Amino acid sequence: MITSRLLVYWFSLLVSSAAFAQDDLPVDDDSQTLPDLPVDPLIEFAAPLEITPVGEESLAAMDKINTGAVPSDEKFFTLASDQLRSVLDDAMAALVCIRVNGASGSGVIVDKSGLILTAAHVVGEPGSELEIVLLDGTELKGEALGVDTRTDAGMARIVDVGEYPTVSLGDYDDLEPGDWAFALGHSGGWDEDRGSVVRLGRIVRKQETTVQSDCVLIGGDSGGPLFDLAGRLIGINSRVGMNIEFSMHVPVSEFIIHDKEFRLGTAMSDEGIPPFFGAAVESVDAEDEAPSGLRLTKISDSGSAKRSGLAVGDIVTHADGVQLTDKASLKTALDRRVAGERMQIKYYRAATDDEEEINEEIWVRLAGRK
């Protein structure tokens, strides 16, 4: 039988450095060398967000459309309509509906692994569980990644492994007021009969962290894409202006600049929030097949442990390469992380009549203390 030491404590307290009295901790050993933080595979194996040049045919058409003049004849609308139709199918294929906590928004896939750009207010805090609905109605599991509530930029991913349709990214620096664009979104949520709604409009104003258009947006369009007429993503629908015909978008440049922070799950407007794991643990010694480490004795419904699938009785042996033996070792590991990031956890679960023994490493998205 596994021998339990008398030291029993709450994981929810361990995650914050401030939660410990200084006289409870051992004296720091300056000579101690910690292992390097493991690289999150969402970063290590991800292609960076990059701008795609405009094709020659689209460039020629856009030069004729984006003249800055007020449309005056049928020829212009025929040209604009033909160009829009030539890129619309690919743009629509990458559009998704995002459902979270009974609400609905939109997003767009920018990497075949299922990386999604959306609005921060659509996905909420990093690590939130999402339901992603593809254009054909396929429902998939999703997860919120990083957010920046200052600009309303947000990132998410499809958890289910697969290859998904994508869109390319445009050059925000080349965008000019008066240029034509089109917005997509699932107004009011995904609707099989209606499909997505397409809104053609022009760029009204351009700033460093905000772009304004006269594409009409309503509820459910938030987080959806804004494209140039080459079908390249130039912004993400954020909010409706004082006039419904003047809508606000997050420039795609914000996602390119902060790509790594978003993928790491950083809440950029709330940097440094200590993580909340949400479990009670006790130190245990190795016995029989079970290793030494920290055994989970109770799990909070709102913590990271519950969300990641850990269960009461599991023994956590390592966190980001740090061997867990006591309170101080866990504190050391968690002091190197903030809420929203993913931590590499190694754990053991004893075999049962229905399940085989588990001894594996997983990545756990760390929730913030509320």
Structure overview:
There is one protein chain. The chain has helices at residues 11-14, 41-44, 56-65, 74-93, 120-123, 252-257, 259-264, 304-308, 327-334, and strands at residues 4-10, 95-100, 103-111, 115-119, 129-133, 139-148, 153-158, 180-185, 197-206, 211-213, 225-228, 233-240, 247-251, 275-276, 279-284, 293-299, 315-319, 322-323, 342-349, 358-365, 367-368. The two termini are 37 Å apart. It is of the alpha+beta class and 370 residues long. The chain contains 9 helices and 21 strands. The model is unreliable at 1-31 (pLDDT under 50). The chain has 2 domains: 4-39 and 274-368, Pdz3 Domain (Roll); 56-268, Thrombin, subunit H (Beta Barrel). It is 18% helix and 34% strand. It is elongated. β9 and β10 form a beta hairpin. The strands form 4 sheets. Strands 1, 15, 16, 17, 18, 19 and 20 form a 7-stranded antiparallel sheet that branches.
Q: Any descriptors?
A:
370 residues, alpha+beta, Pdz3 Domain, Thrombin, subunit H, 2 domains, 7-stranded antiparallel sheet, 6-stranded antiparallel β-barrel, 34% strand
In short:
With 370 residues, this protein is of the alpha+beta class. Helix content is 18%, strand content 34%. Strand 17 (315-319) and strand 18 (322-323) form a beta hairpin.
